[in-house]
Amino acid sequence: MFKKHRKEKLPQLQTQLRTEQTHPFTALSAYMPLGRREAEIYRSLREALPILDAAITKLVRLTGGFSVACESAQAQTRLQDFLSAVPCGRGQYGIDSFLSAYLDSLLTYGCAVGEMVTNGKALRAVCWGDVRRIEIRQGASPLELQLCEAGSAISPKLFPRQELLLFTALNPEPGNPYGVSLLRSMPFLADILLKIYETLGRNWERAGNVRYAVVYKPESGTTAQGDADRRAAQMAAQWSEAMQAGRNGSVRDFVAVGDVSVKVIGADGPILDSEVPVRQILEQLVARTGLPPFLLGLSWASTERMSAQQADLLTSELWALRRAVEPVLRRICTTWLRLEGYLDKPRIVWDEISLQDLTEQAHAGLYRAQTAQILQQLDKGEEKIDEHPEGN
Questions:
Q1: How many domains does the chain have?
Q2: Is 280 within a domain?
Q3: Which of 42, 72, 125, 236 is deepest in the core (most CB within 10 A)?
């Protein structure tokens, strides 16, 4: 007799920072919080919905450019020349190209990564990286983060030159060093919107490519079953020839004898009105971006102008993005200055954000100039009164 050996159960590998809890949205079952597939979901959202792709692109463009101010005029001139022509990879040159790609990754994935390339003596290039290929690990202290190569979850490979890597997280939450993507709250609503669009396409395909149902009712008691089948086959052949002639551009009549009716298949089922649900979903998506609807091509208001309150709110959003990436830009400038032998502390000077109409700006400038002139005249009048007091 053979004795049954009990199979020893191997201990399952469990991670401390990742749970097996799946996303509550059943339509996006592959979406896992802090998982690697989360980034793929965000990229798919931008590819599927042009309005989201346009929103991120406009936020990147509206953030604008910057210049650098240094204590030494020579250092400032040389640093500005370096930033305007620094290689950034992928055939791109200039710090503006790096900043655009860096902000694009920051808004899409919630974090961005870059690298400073040196030859040991000077800074030669600044490149952006793919955040989908990195993992984050806490350093020697809670204030330090180490970037690792994405791979094995047990022993990630640490990048050797951590001092040359650049990393920024957008609005990081407690326990989430990867930051929060601008698209984080959109998968559920975006999935519903894509279902509506897909259904609209199918309905219009049905309504545009009309299909007919030809019904022949033979008279009772006068026609045999075989004769009815023969007449039905003849009608089907004639109807097919008439429809084929119509596809070729010619007109051909269809003549039948007896009780014959022609109906359009699906004509009784009207297409649902999608304007209200689509607008409700788009309102939620646009509200998350912080952009006025008309900047994304949505004409929901009677006037397509930005109010002063909307401009102020959008300006505050853009300044928040600037504050998020400014430490990285300052670090790049400081590294170049130190390797070149300068001790200056660089200061990032952002370009002015202009969101109002040029006419309103001109009127505001005129009003400020008139106010300054009036105040100056009042000051001169008070000085004359003091020079000639009453009673002298």
A1: 2
A2: yes
A3: 42
pTM of structure: 0.70
CB 107 within 8 A of CB 52: no
Q: Are residues 138 and 27 in the same domain?
A: yes
Long-range contacts of 336-342 (CB under 8 A, 24+ apart): 336/79, 336/82, 336/122, 336/123, 337/70, 337/75, 337/79, 339/118, 339/121, 339/122, 339/123, 340/75, 340/78, 340/122, 342/70, 342/72, 342/75
Contact 56, 108 (CB under 8 A): yes
- What tens digit of pLDDT does each residue of 155-193 get? 678 888 888 999 999 988 877 778 889 998 898 889 889
**192-218 confidence digits (pLDDT tens):** 898 888 888 877 776 666 677 777 777
Q: What are phi and psi of 159, to 5 degrees?
A: -70, 135
Are the CB atoms for 294 and 301 separated by under 8 Å? yes
Within a domain: 382: no
What angle, 0 to 180 degrees and rounded to 10, lies between the N-to-C axes of helices 95-109 and 308-339? 120
CA-wise closest residue to 102 among 76, 128, 79, 84: 128
77 lies in the same domain as 170: yes
